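User: Before I run my own analysis I want an independent prediction to cross-check against. Here's the chain; please return only the structure tokens and, at the end, one sentence I can use as a sanity check.
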Amino acid sequence: MNDVLRLDKNQDRRLRAGHLWVYSNEVDNGATPLKGFATGQLVNIESAQGKWLGLGYVNPNSLICARVVTRNQGVALDSSLLVHRINVALASRERLYAAPYYRVLFGEADGVPGVVVDRYGDYLAVQITTAGMETQREALIDALVKVLKPAGIMLRNDSSVRELEGLTRYVELAYGSVPERVALDEGGCRFEVSLAQGQKTGWFYDQTANRDQFIRYVAGRRVLDVCSYVGAWSVRAARAGADRVTAIDVSVQALEQARRNAELNQVSEQIELLQGDAFQILRDLRAQRERFDVVVLDPPAFIKRKKDLKEGTLAYRRLNEAALGLLQRDGLLVTASCSFHMQGDQLLRTVQQAARHSDRSLQLLQQGQQSPDHPIHPAIPETAYLKAFYLRVLPTL
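Assistant: Structure tokens:
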């Protein structure tokens, strides 16, 4: 039988509303001291009155000290439960996507806190970010093999988030074999990525829906793709009829793969690759009087923690201001942020401030969020992190 983790008085309201996290300051340390639990241990979470709230796992050394995995009494966290959760998630993805290229599991939103799984046809990239799920690693791999029958599974457990859980970082083959490069299809384009060495889990499926909208704006136009990674936005723009595409990224390795992806799609002649710091290259392009019809900004998260909000907001403003300075009189700015702490209205306000400083006017044409294979849990705002705005940029009206 699992031990009990009891909450302080009135600290169960968020869990009752549907959230899955327990913070260390919400625990009744007199009745159930956190230091008495082992890292990753399964616990029955109870209210101050002793009412059972759910089964979860605990990490006494983390600010988020427990996460609920089920609200059904009598259900265990084991391979059987994981198989069920994978099947439920898979049913949604298979309705939404014609081919097996998507995120299969998205953590809390799919009932598997601390786990994301991306699918590349016969291959899976898995990322475990919590100690509780690290203890369930073998059960998770077994469940994925049983449901999806992959040829290979790569564990990408090298995220810095693991350090907050007291976990080491590593990349490891967990099952079968995985080639140096795996293929995926998006929007009629073919791409190759590395599951062992690429950023995060190799590909950013969360932007797929936004790229689907983006390509309607690019035919016959000159496009600048800032923080291009392996060329998803650039290649899709070129295939959609963009006259010329310039891609910028700091990573030599990413740009080499972008070059390969351009070749795979027969658009090498349309794409120019520039390696270096994005801010510096944007300054250089401005000095060279270069101009673009469309600029895409898809940077990494500038705000990883709440305390980074002020500095990160300034970085978003500087980046957008630099992009605005490179746009033609009637251009399009596609600007995105994957920083959870930068809310959508705040990002839009920041871009508007950059526009006013640049003496430009904006029209918001449409906005986007993460793709539906990254579902949002209504009670967990942390699962809604990505926002994108499509903005027409005009001279001051």
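Sanity check: The CA atoms of residues 32 and 279 lie 51 Å apart.
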